Amino acid sequence: MSFAQIVALLATGAGYTVLVTLACIATGLLTGLGIALLGRLRLRGLGWLLRAYTYVFRGVPVLALLFLVFFGLPGIGFNVPPLLAMMLSLGLVTGAYLAEVFRGAFEAVDPNEIMAAEAMGMRRRQILLAIEMPQMLRFSVPGMLNEFTTVLKYSPFAYTVGLPDIMKQAMALSATTLRGLEIYLAVGLLYFAIYKSLQFLVRGIERYFYVPGFTRL
Amino acid sequence: MALLEVSGLVKEFDGKPVLNGVDLSLEEGQVKVIMGPSGCGKSTLLRCINRLVEPTSGRILFRGEDVTRPDTDVRALRQRIGFVFQHFALYRHLSALDNIKLGLRKLRRMSDAEATDRACHELRRMDMEEHRDKYPAQLSGGQKQRVAIARALAMDPAVLFFDEPTSALDPRMAREVVALINQLFMDNVTMLCVTHDVFLARYISDRILFLDHGQVRAEGDVEQLLDAHDDPQIRAFFGPGTRAR
Fold it and tell me: Across the interface, do B91 and A122 touch by the CB < 8 Å criterion?
């Protein structure tokens, strides 16, 4: 079996790796944005809950959380499918980290612009969506790309719950051929290719929304 | 009836009075300049009138309506007051055109085409239409202030508030903006302007109000206040040579 054949065989799991990564990124983005936006609105009585979420989910190991969801919840009657288990563990942990990235980026929005919008008579929600969020997302790109990369690198945990991703394919192939060196080298190359594609996509979005001279003050 | 009547306005921060019983009235079409040393409460006064800062006590009548009442529609009040800030406060992620359109779309509920027409009209008025697609970082200070004025005017306010409109500009740009504000004065736009700029005050105003330690220390026309006033503190503020300008 040539190196190219090994890569081709492993690539059959790449679809699952991409699926898990994108599903967890989407979960993370939704929860992270939700937490950051709610935090920004400073709703009374909610602050402690949001802080507790980020505190807990940033402190728990992803694998422990994944096993808790996938192997623990069936014990009380909840059977969680593997992809959903990944989203409820890696996705929610990512959400907690992204919420912090977004919180920091919100702080970089010029308070004078917010005051100008208030002086114009805009509602808090309008200001948040039309002024603060578009700026915050632009400031967040480097932090988001870091988090997305982390999600990709944690995605091999999917094999522990039975998803046939690249890692699962590699372990099966390695067990039958005993050519671990070439197989795991091919795994590294595949992950690198996915990482570069992800980076290319994010940079493309960043270029599309580029505003001349727009930097942190 | 005056457009704006402020009486006994007090604002305290942590028990310390910044405004200490300010009285002020502004007629339709009038331009009034508020001057005074740094920290005397000038900007706080403007912010209290449009309720960006909550007054501690006192009364503000806007076209006869008491806008300090708890049931006042603060957002509606703010939409009737155009505000131009010292540091322009343009939305940095939006082009000059979109800076103006935002309020028209969100608050006036105009269609995109209507908002564009209105924004272009205001940009033309400010001689800025050719820069409509530029972002704030691509504009000079004077150009930014023109866009900020256009943004305020587009909302068709009853009065324009200026908070030190020339203090972040170099002298040449400041003169440009002064000429522009003077044009608004000629167009009968009601304005209340906080400034340290004696040149601006002389050029645009028929009345100057001198604020000191949160109180109106004097009010009069330009000649009365800038030229050898009886009050030594006011003379000291404006300094010698003011008359010569």
Answer: no
Query: Using CA atoms, how far apart are residues A168 and A184, in angstroms rounded to an integer?
Result: 11
Which are the contacts of A27, defined by CB distance < 8 A and separation ≥ 6?
A87, A88, A91, A92, A94, A95
Rounded distance, CA A20 to CA B135, Å?
39
Beta bridge partners of B218: B210
Measured between CB atoms, does B156 come within 8 Å of chain A?
no
Answer whether B109 touches A (CB < 8 Å).
Answer: no
Angstrom distance (rounded) from CA B191 to CA B33: 8
pLDDT of residue B241: 53
Question: Does residue B90 form part of some domain?
Answer: no
In a domain, B49, yes or no: yes
B160 pLDDT more than 80: yes
**CATH code where residue B228 lies:** 3.40.50.300
Answer yes or no: are the C-beta atoms of A38 and A103 closer than 8 Å: no
Q: What region does A182 belong to: left with phi over 0, alpha with psi -120 to 50, or beta?
A: alpha
Provide the pLDDT confidence category of residue B206 given band limits of 50, 70 and 90: confident
**Total of domains in chain B:** 1
Under 8 Å between Cβ of A126 and B108: no
Closest CA relative to residue B59, chosen from B5, B1, B12: B5
User: What is the reported pTM?
Assistant: 0.88
H helix or E strand, kind and range, residue B198: helix B198-204
A interface residues, B as partner, C-beta within 8 Å: 110, 112-113, 115-123, 126, 130-131, 134-135, 138, 211-214
